[in-house]
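Subject: Predicted fold for Cation-transporting P-type ATPase C-terminal domain-containing protein, 930 residues

User T.R. writes:
Posting the sequence so we have a shared reference for the thread.
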Amino acid sequence: MAVSFGVMDWIAGGVIAGLILLNVSVGTWTEWQAEKIVANLAVIGAPTAVVVRHANGSHDAQPQEVAVADIVPGDIVLLKHGDIVPADGRVLEGLSNLEADEAFLTGESLPVTKQSEPVDEDDCPVGDRLSMVFSGAMITKGRASVVVTGTGMSTEIGSIARALQSKGERSEKGFAKFWYWTKVKLGLAETSPLQYRLNSLALALLAAAIVTAIVVLASTGFRRIPRSTATYAVAAAVSMLPVSLVAVVSLTLAQASAQLAQEHVLVRRMDAIEALAGIDNVCSDKTGTLTVGRMVVRKMWVPTGNKHGLTYSFKSGSDPFKPEGEVRCDEENKALSPGKVEEDARELHELAMCTSLCNQAVLAPPREDEGWQANGDPTETALQVASYKMGYAKPALIGLSLPDGIKTVPVTNTYEQVVEHAFDSSVKRMSIAYSDGSGGYVCFLKGAAERVLGCCTRVAGAEMTEADREHIMQTVETLASLGLRVLSFATKYQKADVTSLTRDELEATGWTFLGLAGIYDPPREESAGAVNDCHVASITPRMLTGDHPATATAIALTIGILPKTYPKSAVMTGQQFDALSNAQIDQLPDLPLVVARCAPETKVRMVDALHRRGQTTAMTGDGVNDSPALKRADVGVAMGSGSDVAKQASRIVLTDDDFASIISAVSMGRNVFQNLSKFMLYMLSGNVGQLTVMLFGLAFRDQDGYSVFPLSPVSALWVNTLTAGPPAMALGVEPPSPDAMTRPPSAYRTILTRGFTIDLFYYGLLLGGQSLINFVIVMYGYFPGDFGHGCNESDNASCDPVFRARATCMATLQICMLLHSMQCRHATISVFRLGFRTNKTLLWCVIVLIISTFPIMYIPVINNKVFLIGPMTWEWGLVAAQVLVYVGGSEGYKWGKRVLYRRKGIVAPRAPGDERGLASISSKQTVEEK
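User M.O. replies:
I've generated the structure tokens; pasting them so everyone works from the same file.
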């Protein structure tokens, strides 16, 4: 534009200014759309906290999840292990072993144990305010209620932020600061890997554009460069640059994130979408992810004086939270009466007490049109519902009122909780202690069978023998083989004070084994289909769970993670896997598909083992201890119900905790990757076509010895901006290809492969060659080859042949490029088999832009003054012929690739509706890998 105005070519300058304005407007609009989508997603992904408030005019305060930004002083916030404290607050009574990591405030590396008693000192430092929790701290242990005292900038961390703002930010100086600023502006820093590669490509093309401009100027010998040549040099340089490439990529990724949010997948970092496309392993938890997560107790087993013990079966209705259903003794074939368990089944009494009291889940009675509600861990909820069914509702045992109609055992004294050691995944158990009102303490223990048995010394009123342990573990295996998650329970009574004991001291020994509970968590209906989709997509699903090996194996077989016949090494426990050295793990033929009793450290070792094999993985997690594995994985996937720490360590959050949502995200990632490849192929091959015409056209000379351009500068910019831009954006929203989930992950790790480059130059040279051939045919086949005088700058009598040839060249290039956008929809499938109406946006772009060719050709002034072309007549026959040549050349090229791939054993994808179906190419090479 500046060059055109500088040489006083007002028409060209005005048109170029308009095209630049249009291009900038489109780029700005796409960036704004992307930023708006990202901002909306940020609102969806805003941190939340559980606050006790009155809802819908109710007189009873209920826990509810609210955005952290909506918390105000005076709110009661419920904190638990793994939470990030949302505001400063004072700890209320009833806390349970609360510890918080406040290293960011105090520098103290160890967690701080909190208390509800106020601290008397007025000028007490932050680290000694034991009755306070502070915004940003992480709860490392226990749970508590706190009343909010300060939010936002009124918190301790807010005061630090104010001090930093007033002091000013410290930054790098001199050249280092300038260089970093330059990289940020060029898009080479503070960006995703994909954006980095695209920005690097754009910079490389910019360098090539400068060289192109120099080549054009060199055609004059650098002597008295005409103003038209200077303008043409700029146009040729611009033809090297794909229009709005980075903006289209940003919009495509943002739109994909918005679509994933509707499918319960919250993308925290945009680069996760591109990373998901190339993963070849998904390591998933079982409970709540592969399974429904709404658990019910199916079986309880209690040891008795005889050898076999007694098994009780629990029935449930359609509502798993409704505390109604029959409890029947299998051996005696009799049903128990709620509230009379102590009389009818004395051996079940203590186990029922333990399932009720060693539990923090809360059941809420129906309100209005809603059913029973539960607040707490799904496992504890299932145990609490079972306790209600037996007549051991926790509220009655601790002296609270119960809803009408709930039957309970006679309560002679109430229990007051004094100690709780919350469930810890490293020891796989929890313990709790109650004061019984007579000066003693009743303690309960629950957890994994082997971890609880290790603390027990008695069972069924006698000393526990090795035979007892073996029989209990055999019973665990029996229940687990039914697909039940098995928990063990124990109790002990102490006269001595337990409030000062550490976890290890309390849980070490002296416990009496009470029994087992088998909890059923059915697989999600969609899990089997999602696992099958993984196999089709050459992705290996793995289950890493804390459950018993038999339980994990049963579920894995049900949903297809394990085949019907599998080697012994396919299932391991975390202890077995961790006992292997890295060298031994690397020598395994295949890594295990199921790891039971899996600890968080085991997940990290699994990720590292996969990386050593050159594989990429997505890892799910929900706990604080899962955060190292989430961060180490290529894509960390946190559960929406998980801890804040896990969410912050992940790139993606599943708001529905559903494994199938991960596969939806992988499918979306692959579709985005393919669409990026499609519109990049379209734009770059169009650039090659334009450049072919413009550079080879320098060989044509007029009567004055100057080059005569096959495309005018305005025509070149028109093709580069309008012919390339809208179809490229339409390709960015192309529906998923039929083979997107049948190609191996390696096909989705880089766009600029050898196959892509061959396609790029084939199509580009085909487009440019056809246009140039038509220019030559008109000039030398119909006209005598006289290029006139001054035809690059204005219209005169000698320029009619050049103008008509130029019009033919432009029409050929524009129409064939638009048809080329349809061919770019797939690398091997014929456009006629794909169908034209599956992407209506692209179809309308092609139709409208083809129609726009005619006004340019025939409206006076626009044709001969702006575009420097003339009206066409018989030349349309040449254009039509080249259209047929292009269609034949592109379809023949695809056919040749399909034949070549079949000969090399590469299964080519088929179009939708092909009765032969889509073939999986999990172990085959792909087009992109060639």
